[in-house]
């Protein structure tokens, strides 16, 4: 049976392997077909890359045929290079006679990387080739092959006078030497290295050859290294030092020690370090000699080495150096004392700590503490009672780490007999020992036993303070009694001690004292301790803390104390805490602290308490407080408005589970929250960010994980009138929904948070509505998001002053450009694969454009006469093929428009045309996700299409979604704007990063425009895949540029493209934008809402924007890239609107 089972497993494995091989074979045939087709270079290169992985000997012929194609050759040779087949090597060798230039050099390189010895005779003559690139490639490849014939050919070529070839020959010989050395053939390796050295190579090559020679000759290595170390050839000396550390060769160390005085200081340090690394105690005498050197670095190295090689006999030396030296030498001595090993070291330290130079004793005491030498405790207690102040202090500090619970009483005795500053040291030591050993009760008992006999008020106060910090219950009556002591200092100590008590039990005592106006100083101190005790109470409920802080505010005698309360209040992250702090933002004496506490708390809770937080934050914005605090409040208010459609004020109950039931079975089991009269422990449920959603109820986090369970979420929605709405429900995993007690939705499923929600049409009643969710948990993340969208019945509506022209209702291209295609004096429209001839908009074919996933490979149509022939071409970019390109207008030839690739830098959402370098010619700025660059061009008849393009990389900060350009700082140069800041173009054409704002997942473009007409540039943008259009007003405060963010409109989503145009001829530009319909195929927030196009005008005085309707409802959207121009030549600006639901023209009827 066992054998049958094994055979079955093997049979299955064979079938799986056979299927895999069959699949790979089929894939290989498909890739070979690409190579043999008329596919472009990009597709063929991709096929070569795949064949490098899955290709067999069958693909060699097709790959070999590509070696002569300049555009594909390198991809083909890389594929052949990796193949373990003799046919691949033969194909590369055969290509040597059929290729030239860079292609041939590449083939040579691949031959070398295969270490193809059969090619040596073919490569040898190429060492003399007139093309230096080919000769150099041959030299490197012969070096990689490295056989006898290859080595001989390279040796013979050492006399070549071409620097490029000569350098490659030396590199090849070094490779040959390394191969011989790795094979153990040291004599041949040494001969090759000597040949290189004799040929007067460049310095770097000479040093590398010397290293090889030294490693190849065991007998000569010590003398070679010593000569290099004592010579004047600095590169060679540095290599010799590397070799000493690398080999740790005892013979080298011996010759160096014999010639010690002839070595430079850094070489002496190296020798000492290596002696220590070897752990050779026989070298200790030499190390001790180094400790006496006049060179500080050598002494430091010696002292460090003593710590490794030395023993008890070296304690005195190290302790004296630690006491007498300074800087690195002192630090080395202290480290060595701490690390010193061997028998009797700690006993020797203890012996020496009892007598001698106080400074030396102090160093030994500290070292004993560092070494955790608990056997030294008795000696330290004696030293702590001695007559040397510095030794006493060091002993007390060391006892903190070494003393045990049985030494506490002795420490208390030391405290009673102490003087001055030693009392604080002993306080810290007693507390440290008690906490480290768990002897708080013993320490308290020892102090209480002797407290009554202490007459020194200062010492007695210190003892009472220690009792408070230890917090043993037996001490509380003593501290309470001390609150009424006749000595003021004792009362102060008791107040401070109670403020450090480990629980809230003394709060009433402190509060009573804080309310007593008969002693002002004690009252203020008691209030401070009261605040300390409340703040330290981790187990105290937050609402109780807020009540205590409210009491403290009422009792505070001055602004300084109230400021302290507000500082403590900021640590309590509750709505009540924020509201309390917010009630003081108008108090002139404490408004700054009150506002800061308010926003600090609000930042932790505002998403779950948006309605209650909003009026408090509005008070902060209106208060006379620091701009930075106001900005934090404004940011939260903006985000609250942005997420107003999300439900954030949740309660949670659960988790609920039943043994043996999985998430799917639990879905229909009725738990208490579903029962009308059952008691349910509902509690507050926070929400958090879950991109792109701002209000995620994270049940996994809140309910401490778990699997196969359910939880319930509840919220209340108040409506002034009955209204229809759509619930957008995102859940992980399944969800059942009740509205006002009735099930309105059920989806029993295992899933993550999906891009597309469950949508449920409901009707809210007038008044309070209760919404309950039951969310199941299978495994991994667990939570839910709910967004409420009001149902609006939007009939197509055209704005006043506009006439809508349907250019092509079936067009699904998202970009459009306006240009005079046929040079008839009329502006036409080009969108994707077609252009439309004015004035009747006759449709003409331009080119075939591929579609993938509901997107065309066409994300911009920028009108530019690229080749300078007088006919306007277009430039663009695309996401899927990652290509920046331009499309040539064929003029009157009526030929298809030809596409010329510029670059393939990565996925791009669109491209824009700006004069980046200020030369009067438009450049291309694509929005690349993975990098950033702009492209300029010049006319060059030898280049493809007569145009030569140059890529200009930008700093990486400009990569990602959202990009624009303009003169931000009004210096006459074009800057680049990103969501996280802007790149300032410097006078030399460089870029300076200015991280001055955070715009979010921004539109393309981000507009740079003086919106308010105050002479500086502002910024306007939309959240391209969410709700919100914004502007950032540029201002200057104390000479520093700042940006005030303002909301323009957040009632609709996907404002992906924006432009400025003077639509009413008043000399000021309006903001034009609209919904990019189905930007992510309906998965964006509001992705399926009604389409709309608007323009906005700014009232400068009030800084408010007015929205003007151009179109809403119907099928008119605004796409990803378009233009506003006077297309009909009547003196006003018209607007072209492309998108996935058609191509349209808004004719301006102003004139």
Summarize the amount of helix as a percent range: 40-55%
Number of helices: 40
Per DSSP, what share of the residues sits in E-state strands of 2 or more residues? Answer: 15-25%
Indicate the low-confidence ranges by residue numbers: 1-23
Instruction: Give the second-level CATH assignment, the architecture of one domain.
Output: 7 Propeller
Q: Give the CATH topology of one domain.
A: Methylamine Dehydrogenase, Chain H
What is the highest CATH level, the class of one domain? Mainly Beta
Strand order of the largest sheet: 2-1-5-10-7-8
Number of strands: 42
Secondary-structure-based class equals alpha+beta
Q: What kind of sheet is the major sheet? A: 6 strands, antiparallel
Would you identify the CATH H-level superfamily of one domain? Integrin alpha, N-terminal
Specify the overall morphology.
Answer: flat
The whole-number mean of residue pLDDT values reads 91
Tell me the span between the first and last alpha carbons: 94 Å
Radius of gyration: 41 Å
Describe this structure in words.
The longest helix is centred in the first third of the chain and has 34 residues, at 2-35. The protein has 1151 residues and is an alpha+beta fold. Among the domains are: 2-229, Leucine-rich Repeat Variant (Alpha Horseshoe), CATH 1.25.10.10; 648-790, Jelly Rolls, CATH 2.60.120; 797-1148, Methylamine Dehydrogenase, Chain H (7 Propeller). The chain has a six-stranded antiparallel sheet. Strands 3-4-11-6-9 form a five-stranded antiparallel sheet. Strand 18 and strand 19 (855-856) form a beta hairpin. The protein is 42% helix and 21% strand. The chain has 40 helices and 42 strands. It starts with a helix and ends with a strand. The protein is flat.
